[in-house]
Amino acid sequence: MKKRATLPDTNYILRYLLRDNESHYVEAAGFFENVRSGKELAIIAESVLVECLYVLTKHYKVPRTEGAKSLYGILLYKGIVNHNRETLTRALTQFAETTLDPVDCLLIAMAENEGYSVRSFDRALVNYPAASDGASCIIERSDSTDSPQA
Q1: Neighbouring-strand partners of residue 129
Q2: Which range among 35-39, 41-45, 133-137 shows the weakest confidence by mean pLDDT?
Q3: 52: which of 14, 17, 67, 119 lies 20 to 30 Å off by Cα?
């Protein structure tokens, strides 16, 4: 019988990373150790990854690079079976290296890795270097530049 993957939510991942509730940490650490070794399978949903970044950096004031590095490490566990792992790790790298928000980083990573284009009114996103240097990521600018960021 095929093993079924588990979908840990934001709170579960945060308790593991922050260790701010000992009983929750112990449970989450046991689960993630099994995922690390491949005894259990897990999928980290894109929405959960983005929410983890927001909560870590905005609420807990964890530096962007540290938050991204922690989540990147989890994505490398043997039992993580995301079909889009490369896209997610690329998004985390961009998040650590830029000031773009997590969703913009995810969109850029999807465009770069999967050949999509991105259409946006967001100035930070349309001014991303790949939009003007002919890289594999195509970000289409809107005709209006007066629109506020989302």
Answers
A1: none
A2: 133-137
A3: 119
Give the number of other CB atoms < 10 A from CB of residue 128.
24
Q: Three-state DSSP class for 7?
A: coil
Contact residues for 27 (Cβ-Cβ < 8 A; gap 6+) = 15
Q: What is the pLDDT of residue 148?
A: 54
Do 52 and 92 touch, CB atoms closer than 8 A? no
Three-state DSSP class for residue 111: helix
* Contact assessment for residue 95 and residue 64, using Cβ atoms and an 8 Å cutoff: yes
148 class by beta-carbon count within 10 Å (0-12 exposed, 13-18 middle, 19+ buried)? exposed
- For residue range 67-102, what is the model confidence (pLDDT) as tens digits? 999 999 999 999 999 999 999 999 999 999 999 999
Instruction: Note the helical H segments in the chain.
Output: 10-18, 22-37, 46-54, 64-75, 85-97, 102-114, 123-126
